[in-house]
Design a protein that fits this description.
Length: about 675
């Protein structure tokens, strides 16, 4: 019989496509341990438990587990959500399919789109709410119940209730949801206005439908996690990272799974933001390179950017605040191939963790970016990261690159491997330019923070490609997203449509609503057992000029008593001018939505606890040397044990720094210096 305890350890777990990363903090001593285990595709909860078992050792010592998950994302991308039905207003069953008149391919009128809910499972009922909130037709609850029963007969596990203009008056939709919940055999009933009480019918329908589609999948996964922890003797709290970088408890995550759509990548950005601020880097470009993807985000003046919505895949729009992340298929497991035009291409197809790169020896015969780095000498075949394998098969990687790339292109194997890495770097650089240069940011004012298992191998190349000032490589880059789970704060937020001209805005009514919502969130957060150190509020408005389609986000003071028309107008003008460089005098502005968020601040991790305590001098950290291909020539690179390097140690390229969770390659004409937090800061060597 198990004895259930809550200990003193805080555990961050990030599940990626290849590895599950674990970061463990002893809250009493400040001691840190990390681990990486192979992710388990069929059931991520197995890898989750395995990772904790390896990193935390004793489950009864765990106090809180914070989890960044890709369960929801994968279910959407692979279309493996629950069988879902929709109950909607008569005449609007095809909103999900009509979208925004976009198309899967940019050029040409071709391409297929199949919504996650087929047309026969989108049922209509009598009800109508007008755009001004007037209910012209009360909802027919008998039709609603009949539709629910019909969906159950069709085998639906989840249902979404979406009524047109429900944002303007919630009454009809609330009544329908109540009626459905009385007869639905599970809690998987989603009301669109509970998810997104915001104008724009497609975005509201899509977000709510995807929430319903994910509910059974995510809820069942969370149940397995909790059971796995209980079976091992702990009743630790479990928190989930939201797409906005904040945390929520498992109950909310099961109710609103769509908010976890970019959970893992968001945790990585929050970690980078935290590390960068402590290390003196307010402007960062974060690059998370795992086995499958390359995720890029920009931190400007210490703040990450939140996007109002994102498209997970074509036609799968999720409108909920998310850390703005650009993702491409350029991970370590991305497969190199010759395309139809006879050109070398990398990705987006990935070998992932199973079978993995050719050098893993698990059945893949197509070369990957990892295989190319191995052949260039940048990866030690006898010390693969993650501990999944004892060694890498360099001969198999050589044969694969030779047969699939080198011979078809008439190249030597080293030149082909170099070409694979160059193409991958070019793809990564393009993603970085998209979030920086193309938005008016000067790369010379930014440092790059690569993390994930493979990012540190490409940091110097990306500095050269884009002209970045520096690179900051965290102490444990391979588990940065897991670290982000540990440093993230709790967050609750909501958006409500206002849709009123600024001059006609009833400030008293709006401020009262915002204040009431903030107070409710503060009470909700105060009931958590996460040891919050304080609460803060965020009030924002979505505004635009009359005639425009896209709004801008306008921050307001954290006390609604300070709101008035002039302060709102001034705030709008400032943000608009900063964004577009000019105002549009003489045109009225409109308030579309109001946003309220409350952040529950959790105890902060003292990064000095991650500082090296090594008494070795730099020469004692050398473990050997290896010939490395760099820009078409072979050079001798000194190999260092990275975690043994003392504070202020300088390492001049070409050099390789090895550690259990990643490998760092410093190119010629660059050097790395260890700061007081254990970060490696790479800069140009101007000597």
């Amino acid at each position: 019989m198990n004895s259930y305890n809550k200990g003193n350890k805080l555990v961050g777990v990030d599940v990626g496509g290849t590895f599950t990363d674990v970061f463990v903090l002893d809250q009493d001593t400040g001691d840190i341990s990390i681990s990486k285990v192979a992710s388990t595709k069929g059931d991520q909860s197995i890898g989750f438990i395995n990772g904790i078992e390896k990193g935390a050792k004793y489950f009864n010592e765990i106090n809180t587990v914070v989890h960044g998950t890709t369960v929801g994302t994968n279910a959407l991308l692979e279309r493996k959500g629950a069988k879902t039905g929709i109950i909607t207003t008569k005449g609007f069953r095809d909103v999900l399919e009509m979208r925004r008149r976009d198309r899967p391919t940019t050029w040409g009128l071709w391409g297929m789109f199949e919504p996650v809910v087929p047309r026969n499972m989108r049922l209509e009922v009598s009800e109508r709410t007008l755009a001004d909130g007037t209910i012209s037709t009360p909802v027919n609850l008998e039709e609603v119940k009949a539709a629910a029963k019909a969906l159950l007969e069709l085998g639906c596990d989840a249902v979404c209730i979406f009524f047109i203009n429900g944002f303007a008056n919630l009454k009809n939709e609330r009544l329908a949801a109540k009626a459905v919940r009385e007869i639905w055999p599970s809690p998987y009933v989603t009301s669109a206005t509970e998810i997104l009480p915001e104008i724009r019918e497609f975005e509201r329908c899509s977000t709510a439908t995807l929430n319903a589609y994910l509910q059974p999948v995510v809820a069942n996964y969370l149940d397995r996690l909790k059971k796995g922890l209980l079976d091992r003797g702990t009743m630790s709290d479990v928190l989930l990272v939201q797409s906005n970088g904040g945390l929520m408890d498992v109950e909310l995550a099961a109710q609103f799974p769509v908010r976890t759509a970019l959970s893992g990548p968001a945790a990585g950005v929050k970690a980078a933001q935290y590390i960068g601020a402590e290390a003196g880097f307010a402007n960062l470009i974060t690059c998370d390179m795992g086995g499958t993807s390359f995720d890029v985000s920009l931190i400007n003046k210490g703040e990450s950017t939140l996007a109002a919505q994102t498209e997970i895949d074509f036609g799968m729009v999720v409108r909920t605040p998310m850390v703005e992340i650009s993702t491409i298929g350029a991970g370590g497991g991305s497969i190199a191939h010759i395309d139809q035009g006879g050109l070398l291409a990398v990705g987006p197809e990935s070998a992932g963790s199973d079978p993995g790169p050719v050098s893993y020896g698990l059945g893949n015969d197509r070369p990957t970016v990892t295989d190319a780095n191995l052949l260039l000498g940048r990866i030690n075949p006898d010390r693969p990261i993650g501990g999944k394998l004892e060694n890498l098969d360099i001969d198999a990687a050589w044969d694969a690159v030779k047969q699939k790339i080198a011979e078809p292109l008439g190249l030597t194997v080293p030149d082909a491997a170099d070409a694979i890495v160059r193409v991958a770097n070019a793809k990564m650089a393009g993603a970085i330019r998209l979030v920086s240069v193309e938005r008016g940011h000067d790369p010379k004012e930014f440092a790059i923070m690569p993390f994930g298992g493979g990012g540190s191998l490409h940091a110097c190349a990306l500095m050269k490609e884009i002209g970045l000032a520096a690179s900051i490589i965290p102490r444990y880059p391979g588990v940065t997203s897991a670290l982000g789970c540990v440093v993230a704060d709790m967050r609750l937020d909501i958006v409500q449509t206002v849709n009123t001209m600024l001059d006609e805005l009833d400030i008293a009514v709006m401020t009262s609503k915002m204040e009431d919502q903030a107070i409710k969130f503060e009470k909700d957060l105060s009931r958590t057992e996460s040891g919050l150190t304080g609460l803060s509020r965020v009030f924002e408005l979505d505004m635009l000029y009359v005639g425009q389609t896209h709004s801008i986000n306008v921050p307001l003071p954290d006390d609604p008593k300070n709101f008035n028309l002039e302060t709102i107008r001034e705030a709008f003008n400032k943000i608009y001018l900063d964004t577009y460089g000019r105002l549009l005098p003489g045109i009225g502005c409109r308030v579309i939505n109001m946003r309220v968020a409350v952040i529950g601040h959790r105890p902060k991790l003292d990064l000095s606890s991650m500082a090296p305590v090594s008494s070795k001098n730099i020469d004692q950290c050398v473990t050997g040397d290896r010939m490395v291909w760099c820009e078409g020539t072979k050079v001798s690179a000194i190999i260092y044990e990275r975690l043994d390097l003392p504070v202020n140690a300088k390492v001049f390229g070409p050099a390789i720094l090895e550690q259990p969770d990643t490998t760092i390659f410093i190119e010629p004409k660059m050097y790395g210096e260890v700061d007081k937090y254990g970060n490696l800061i790479i800069r140009w060597n101007k000597e």
